[in-house]
Specification:
It is a single chain. This protein is α/β, with parallel strands linked by helices and about 350 residues long. The protein has two domains: about 240 residues, Alpha/Beta hydrolase fold, catalytic domain (Rossmann fold, 3-Layer(aba) Sandwich); about 90 residues, no CATH class. About 35% of the residues lie in helices and about 15% in strands. The strands form two sheets. It has an eight-stranded mixed beta sheet with strand order 1-2-4-3-5-6-9-10, with helices on both faces. The radius of gyration is 19 Å and the shape is globular. The structure holds zinc ion. Belongs to the GMC oxidoreductase family. It comes from Microbacterium ureisolvens. InterPro entries: AB_hydrolase_1, AB_hydrolase_fold, Cholesterol_Oxidase.
């Protein structure tokens, strides 16, 4: 009898690793009673999220689906994870240190020579940066959701990024989604209250603050219609801080029309899509048609860049009815999305 995997059958194995610059990050290997029959898959969470974000309170999560398909699942907490001590970080740090260290660790532990990756939001951008820079040649397939090398944002999100950010960063090191709980400091309190008034679409203060922190929409990071009540409640405690150091890189990248390195070093180019990709990884790009954090044009532009250099190798899937994080958190994602991800990993 084939048993469908569910959360209570997961056995977590936590690995602490040095990212190479003195920062400790963690990997969670998710095991079940059956041994994997396929290779390792690395999961990379989005900004202000954590590895655990891939296990929302749904009957079937992406992790369950991957385990049932035989994959060896490793969830990374890169340095922006809300499970780690808060620190300022840039995508350069993650691409240069966290991702190569995680890939090497997984290969050393499993004896595999290559792996696949499923990445969301800034986990995707950092992984794409590391891949096209030639830092992780062992990654064979990259499933990337939302944005990869070309952040294209809604107009109001750009206004916040270029106008509000310079004001806020004078007194704040972070935009903190947990400001919902009553922040310290006048500016944070005014911001929180203004956000709650502006986002009258629901009374979940985290949902409101997440919409303020990234993108532009009511809400910005998902379509309410796609989240069940339990998952919408769960997001209230899932989101954390977004450091101003990240916003600075996003602003510079927005101006350049592609991801840029803040301090090119260690093999990172100044502009990531200005050079040919130094990887043989196949990219499977996913975009919610109604993504209000990064517009679907983000993935279209990266797809065009990849196809220009490696015609016919990569794919682009635009998911109708989906936004940004609901691609993984949606109540129907196990029907609408996960089978497409599996198909890309098994291709
Ligand atoms: Zn909401």
């Amino acid at each position: 009898m084939v048993r469908a995997t569910a959360r209570f059958r997961h056995h977590d194995e936590v690995h602490f690793i040095d990212a190479g610059d003195g920062v400790t990050i963690t990997l969670i290997r998710v095991r079940t009673d059956t041994e994997p029959t396929k290779g390792p898959i690395l999961l990379l969470h989005g900004v202000a999220m954590r590895a655990e974000s891939f296990r929302p309170p749904l009957a079937r999560t992406l992790v369950d689906v991957l385990l049932d398909d035989g994959w060896d699942v490793w969830m990374l907490n890169w340095r922006g994870s809300t499970d780690l001590d808060p620190r300022p970080w840039t995508l350069d740090d993650v691409a240069l240190n966290d991702i190569p260290a995680a890939v090497r660790h997984v290969l050393a532990q499993t004896g595999a020579s290559s792996l696949g990756a499923v990445a969301h939001c800034q986990g995707s951008t950092a992984l794409s940066m590391a891949a096209v820079s030639g830092l992780v040649p062992e990654v064979e397939v990259i499933v990337s959701n939302g944005v990869s090398l070309h952040p294209v944002m809604p107009p109001f999100a750009r206004v916040k990024l270029h106008t509000l950010r310079p004001l806020m960063q004078r007194t704040q090191s972070y935009v903190d989604v947990p400001w919902r709980d009553g922040p310290e400091g006048a500016l944070a309190r005014v911001t929180r209250n203004a956000v709650r008034v502006w986002h009258a679409e629901c009374t979940n203060a985290s949902c409101n603050m997440a919409s303020f922190a990234l993108g532009s929409g009511h809400p910005a990071l998902w379509r309410h219609a796609n989240l069940d009540a339990a998952t919408h409640d769960w997001v209230a405690t899932e989101f954390g801080r977004v450091p101003m150091s990240f916003y600075a890189q996003l602003a510079a990248s927005d101006r350049a029309g592609q991801l840029v390195s803040l301090r090119p070093k260690g093999g990172l180019p100044p502009r990531f899509a200005a050079v040919a990709p130094q990887t043989h990884a196949r990219f499977a790009l996913f975009a919610g048609a109604q993504n209000r954090a990064f517009l679907p044009d983000s993935q279209r532009k990266t797809h065009a860049y990849l196809e220009r250099h490696q015609p016919g190798r990569h794919s682009l899937t635009v998911l109708r009815g989906y936004g940004h994080a609901d691609v993984f958190l949606g109540a129907r994602a196990h029907i609408d999305v996960y089978p497409r991800i599996l198909a890309e990993l098994n291709a």
